[in-house]
Write a structure and sequence with these properties.
By secondary structure, the chain is α+β, with helices and mostly antiparallel strands. It folds into two domains: 44 residues; 102 residues, no CATH class. Helix content is 40%, strand content 14%. The protein contains four helices and six strands. The protein has a three-stranded antiparallel β-sheet with strand order 1-5-4. The protein is globular.
Length: 151
């Protein structure tokens, strides 16, 4: 929200160019692993296509994901770990056994569902309206460059 509109427009344009270039590069690989020498984020961010996230490893090792979503998912995982830890302490259970990297996305909006402004629609929406969560599958229905997070 604090980013000037002119700069936001330029950054959105650059992101769209990078996205088109990534699509052209993906055609070259046709399902083969992408060489590490390619540094275009859009080659790795699959959130718009939908990604299965059942484990922390999916967003740390397998997929690139928009930083805000990454932080929100890690925060959910961490809160779940803290609840497990507290439950283990309160029931005298071995804490080491409780460590788990699985993620339950059904609780993703428990810590908040912020408003966003969608530039292309010229409308304010809740994050849950553009971020579908269905049975461990996360799909972002708008590209990050089309969103303004209200701060």
């Amino acid at each position: 929200m604090t980013l000037p509109a002119k700069l936001r427009s330029k950054l959105a344009e650059a992101a769209q160019i990078a996205q088109r270039e990534a699509a052209a590069q993906l055609e070259q690989f046709k399902g083969q692993p992408i060489p590490e020498t390619f540094s275009n984020l859009w080659l790795y961010d699959r959130a718009a296509h939908g990604i299965e996230i059942d484990d922390l490893k999916r967003i740390t090792d397998d997929f690139g994901i928009y930083p805000y979503l990454f932080r929100k998912i890690v925060k959910l995982w961490y809160a779940t770990q803290m609840r497990r830890y507290w439950n283990a302490l309160s029931t005298n259970t071995d804490v080491a056994v409780q460590y788990d990297t699985r993620i339950d996305l059904t609780k993703l909006f428990e810590d908040g569902n912020p408003y966003l402004f969608v530039i292309s629609d010229q409308d304010f929406v809740r994050l849950s309206e553009i971020l579908r969560v269905e049975k461990g599958r996360l799909t972002l229905t708008k590209y990050p460059y089309d969103l303004v997070f209200l701060s």
